[in-house]
From TrEMBL:
Organism ancestry: Eukaryota, Metazoa, Chordata, Craniata, Vertebrata
InterPro entries reported for this sequence: Bardet-Biedl_syndrome_7_prot, BBS7_GAE_dom, BBS7_hairpin, BBS7_pf_dom, Beta-prop_BBS7, WD40_repeat_dom_sf
Domain BBS7 helical hairpin: 599-712
Protein name, entry field: BBS7 protein
GO biological process: intracellular protein localization; non-motile cilium assembly
GO cellular component, one term: BBSome
BBS7 beta-propeller domain segment(s): 21-319
Coiled coil regions, renumbered to chain: 335-362
Domain BBS7 platform: start-end pairs: 494-596
A Pfam short name: BBS7_GAE
Boundaries of every BBS7 GAE domain copy: 377-486
Superkingdom: Eukaryota
Keywords linked to the UniProt accession: Coiled coil
Membrane-spanning segments: none
């Protein structure tokens, strides 16, 4: 069957959060479905679609922003009651828009995630889960890390209430009452959960999850343990997953998986067999997709996919043929339909232009009066700053509800700006002061008209920590700007992992002193990414990390009065020692620091770095030869006389240049890491070897692994 085609935009509401748009069940056998959507102005809008136009059903008054919208009703009946989470309150509306419930929960924070099953209501704030039945408190659980989504396995299939929490520390937590039943590890921080097939599959135990780094998987949540079924990586390096739905859009009797990502990709996966999903279609929208639903919306008999994007646009992809077959009479009818639509759009546009002029005049008059009050227009920015494991870089994604004019990026620590294929903005760099504690980076991105989303990539240097700031200026009058700050942490290239290799040669740093569990936890939060801000429950905690650039690892275990950090990389231990002692000194806490250095670990780390070093040196050499080889090609007209290795450089020239451009300072960074390793090795022995660094750089240029190891051991 032909894939769904873009039918266009139905209407725009306010800025929408994740999972805030649903399709109400059809009331008759052939009737189309109504759309209901909640936005950050607190407005619930319900509408149907007739002849491509939105027909309103109801619209509520503005209020607190809506963070989730779910449908509910008695079990095994049409789920047509509308529930919204707004602040710490849950409200219920009928499909006609009449409010029948206002439930003020006992949560002190705003609701972040919600799920409804019959009379059971499952709510999550940042770390807290609550289960209510008929609005009465039943169970409570405090999670070890932030909760991003919640659902419950279908009670009619599994015969018990089994809530599942998606948590930032790369686990799904399965609960029983107020207790943790078990944890299921997933390959990335999960952002969204959905029941497989919409009903949990045959067993009712199957959950599809999507992660913030763009991975998708299916896991079976049995009564005793998790069983992973399939997993799809993110080879195409697309955005994180925000929403999932199951719907048979291809009409083959099997429900496809509909996936919406934060880079605007809408994907349809179909199943050749139960455990083998394949990407069948994809469609790019210009904004992140907050919600996706499959159903029959525009015309009887034609299914479609409806997506709502961050700034509130609702877009449909339909199976209805765009070019109708038939005689000239039908074509004439179609053109008349189109003409009336075009004229109504023209009228609407003229009306809006007049309104804009009137408002502008009104603003000019009020700004010139003696009692003028300057009003800064408010605008929403959706931002995401995450570490990518594949290339050890940070992605900064900025999405604004209106077009971006420019973004100024400023950093007080040395960072590299990397190339992003999807980025069409023009970047210009400003020179920075060489004074200490001043700017290391000042770059301006000027965006093309109608750009609402900008993606930047930066790579930091471990040991150098500070703040990256983005000044976002949209195309609105009067000119206004929002500043967003992002912390570059001392061990910024480390990422949480489930386990480490305990057989590696490890260096150990031990701290002892009069500090509380909360204090040492706050120091670890300061040093490392992906650590929950709240100190975990219990007396001690262990976290595992992997260095995404080198593949070295770190184990941190700490409790009140004691901390133990183990790594196969001496430089990691050195950075921790410097930063932790500085933090303790700030709080006037005396630390007793001891360390155990394993000489073998230096050789081990050099062996991890060397293949990367060799590859980058070879790439640099090839790139430097390209111009000379191209000149030869022009002069000689033919390159058959060249050695095969030089011919292959010419053939691959474009890819080589592209790769070199994408990783501008990669070789310098590797040189820097080896130099730090050399200095840190001898620092722990109390020797200053900075005078020997020029000799080390000479050996590095020679790219001889054995010579390098020998130099480290002989110095």
């Amino acid at each position: 069957p032909a894939g769904p085609v873009n039918r266009g935009v139905f209407r725009q509401v306010g800025v929408t959060a994740q999972k805030t748009m649903r399709l109400l069940p059809a009331s008759g056998k052939k009737a189309t479905q109504k759309v209901v959507v909640g936005d950050q102005d607190g407005v619930i809008t319900c509408f149907g679609i007739k002849k491509g136009e939105a027909v309103p059903v109801f619209k509520t008054l503005p209020g607190q922003k809506i963070s989730r919208l779910e449908l509910g009703g008695a079990l095994n009946t049409p789920q047509e009651k509308i529930f919204v989470a707004t602040g710490s309150e849950v409200r219920g509306f009928t499909k006609r828009g009449k409010q029948f419930l206002s439930f003020e929960t006992n949560l002190t924070e705003s609701i972040k995630a919600m799920y409804i099953s019959g009379a059971d209501l499952f709510l999550c704030a940042s770390y807290i889960y609550n289960h209510y039945c008929d609005c009465k408190d039943q169970h409570y659980y405090l999670s070890g890390d932030k909760i991003s989504d919640v659902l419950c396995l279908p009670v009619d299939k599994v015969n018990c209430i089994t809530p599942v929490l998606a948590c930032q520390d790369r686990v799904l937590r399965v609960l029983q009452g107020s207790d943790l039943l078990y944890e299921a590890e997933v390959p990335g921080p999960p952002t969204v959960l959905a029941l497989n097939n919409g009903n949990g599959g045959g067993s009712g135990e199957e959950i599809v999850y999507g992660t913030s780094d763009g991975k998708l998987g299916l896991i079976q949540i049995t009564g005793s343990k998790p069983i992973p079924k399939w997993e799809i990586g993110n080879e195409k390096k697309r955005g994180g997953i925000l929403c999932i739905d199951s719907f048979d859009i291809l009409g083959d009797g099997v429900k496809e998986l509909l996936v919406g990502r934060d880079d605007g990709m809408l994907e349809i996966y179909n199943f050749e067999s139960a455990d083998d999903p394949g990407l069948r279609y994809d469609h790019a929208l210009s904004e992140s997709i907050a919600s996706v639903q499959g159903g029959c919306v525009g015309k009887d008999g034609y299914d479609e996919i409806l997506a709502s994007t961050y700034s509130g646009w609702l877009t449909g992809l339909t199976t209805e043929p765009v070019h109708r077959e038939g005689g000239s009479g039908e074509e004439l009818k179609l053109s008349q339909e189109m003409q009336s639509k075009i004229s109504s759009l023209r009228n609407e546009l003229e009306h809006l232009q007049i309104k804009v002029l009137q408002e502008r005049e009104k603003y000019q008059q009020s700004s010139q009066s003696n009692t003028a009050v300057s009003s800064v227009p408010a605008f929403n920015v959706n931002d995401k700053f995450t570490l990518n494991k594949d290339d050890a870089s940070y992605s900064l994604i900025l999405e604004v509800q209106t077009a971006i004019d420019n973004v100024l990026v400023q950093s007080d620590v040395p960072i590299d700006l990397l190339d992003v294929d999807k980025n069409s903005a023009v970047v210009s760099f400003s020179s920075c002061d060489s004074e200490p504690n001043s700017n290391f980076l000042l770059a301006t991105y000027r965006c093309q008209a109608n750009t609402t989303r900008l993606e930047l990539k930066v790579r930091s240097i471990e040991g150098q920590y500070g703040t990256l700031q983005a000044y976002v200026t949209p195309r609105i009058q009067p000119k206004t700007c929002q500043v967003h700050q992002y912390q570059i942490k001392p061990l910024s290239l480390h990422q949480r992992t489930h386990s480490i290799d305990h057989d590696r040669p490890m260096n150990t740093l031990t701290l002892k002193g009069q500090f509380s569990f909360a204090e040492i936890h706050s120091w670890v939060v300061f040093c490392l990414p992906e650590v929950p801000e709240k100190a975990p429950a219990g007396e001690s905690i262990t976290f595992y990390f992997e260095n995404t650039f080198l593949g070295t690892q770190l184990e941190s275990t700490y409790r009140k009065g004691e901390g133990c950090f183990k790594s196969d990389n001496i430089s990691t231990i050195s950075i921790l020692k410097d930063v932790l002692s500085k933090e303790a000194t700030k709080r006037k806490i005396n630390l007793n620091i001891s360390y155990d250095i394993n000489e073998e670990s230096v050789r081990h780390t050099l062996k991890l770095i060397h293949p990367k070093l060799e590859y980058q040196q070879l790439l640099a050499k090839k790139v430097h030869l390209i111009d000379a080889l191209r000149e030869l090609q022009v002069h000689e007209g033919n390159v058959d006389f060249l050695l095969p290795k030089y011919r292959s450089i010419l053939e691959e020239a474009d890819q080589l240049l592209e790769e070199y451009k994408r990783q501008p300072a990669h070789l310098e960074r590797l040189y820097g890491m080896i130099t730090d390793l050399f200095i840190d090795k001898f620092k722990f022995k109390g020797t200053n070897v900075k005078t020997k660094v020029p000799l080390l750089l000479e050996i590095l240029d020679g790219c001889d692994q054995d010579g390098l190891i020998a130099f480290f051991e002989a110095a």
